[in-house]
Specification:
This protein is an alpha/beta fold and 483 residues long. The protein contains 18 helices and 19 strands. 43% of the residues lie in helices and 13% in strands. Strand 7 and strand 8 form a beta hairpin.
Length: 483
Amino acid sequence: MTSNRPALEPLRSAYRLQYLTDQQLDKLQEATLEILEKVGVKVPSEKALKVFAEHGANVDKANQIVKLNRDLVFKAMKTVPRYFVMGARVPEYDLNLEDGTTYFTTDGCGVEFVDLDTGQARPSSKADVGLMTLVSDYLPSIGFIWPMVSAQDCGRMSPLHELDVIWNNTSKHVGSETIMGGREAKYAVEMATVVSGSKEELRKRPPLSSLICTVSPLMQDQPGIEAAMVFAEAGIPVGFLSMPTLGTTAPSTQAGALAMGDAEIINATVLVQLMFPGCPVYHSMMQAWADMRTGAYVSYPRDARGRYGVVDMAHHWGMPSLGACYGTDSALPGTWQSAAEPALDPFLAGLVSPEIVTGMGLARTYTRLFPEQIILDDDLYQRARAYLQRMDVDDESLAMESIANVGPGGHFLGQKHTRSHMKTSLVRGVTHQLNEQNKYRDPLEVARERVRWIIENHKPEPLESSKQVELTRIVAAADKELG
């Protein structure tokens, strides 16, 4: 472990909020079951259709529609583990999923990188992936790493190149949301096995997880679902993410979109559990909205309650949840919009307590990366982390002796109690950093300076040279075969 990096600081809330009532959750689950049984989900994979048919599902091969009766659904869902380990390169940074603990990650996978010095935007590269991994590796708010931008200079095999450069810049757990296709997934499994040291250690402490998107309404993505089957076989955690857009690819009501998206997720979860009972799977849904005047994609309207109700839905099924936070629609950092849209997210996420959460560090609806944005998002995270902790009320914090000593009309500057606590009573965020004239500095300036300091001073624990060589060989082989 590097000596200059703080330990992980997950959210551990002293308070809990159930966003949906038990009655509402039962009604939503009943709607999901009805969709699965009567409407079905299109699964454009011969391999997946065969698995469903062999286990008694109603499979229309001509139209690739799979309908699942509730008995089959509940039988498969009983084998989903409620908690599991998302391993890291070093055990100290393993994510042991458990009740009441929430780990955050970066957002991904943007396509533009804004230069820290010039402010100019350009297509993102593999080097940018590595740079932001190094920054994220240092921040204690980041529990695990997603590629924040895409390695567009690496062609079709960019997701594997992203894994290569990430593992060379972090010892935290690594997630990917872009590995699609069975053959590509096999290369990723081979890379993860190299990092773990063996297939057995990979299964015990998988250093990689994969998020697979469904296609709304009510479809699986063929390369995605076939990649998921490969990952599940190896014991690598797989998340299924539905992204319904209210009014276009989903009903225009939040409950309808939740039920439909849930059906997509449960269809995929049932598939991998039928194949590999007990394989680690997590549940995720990220609603968006269509602006009916323009057709624009809106991720943050004023009412975005669906972001938190879906966490309750996952837990109602007995599954871990990947929550969604941050990801402002603002095109620039440091604006009112860039702070207002995600400001409540980490606090509300801590209250509903998903096991893992994505979203830190991107602007312009998940597409543009300003390096300083992750520092601003980290500040929001640390504020929420403080709000969620129970305040001390004990003999020391009540300061009764000091109050008696000062009495009416006095001041506390001369009190020993004040001297003992004055350095910790005011915790400065990016908004209250002082310059040489003791004036508050521009938070954007502070954030840029912080990013530069991390880049210049943080040295992640290096990957063993023999493993570096192996990762390079595997990526080169994938480029030759598939790229």
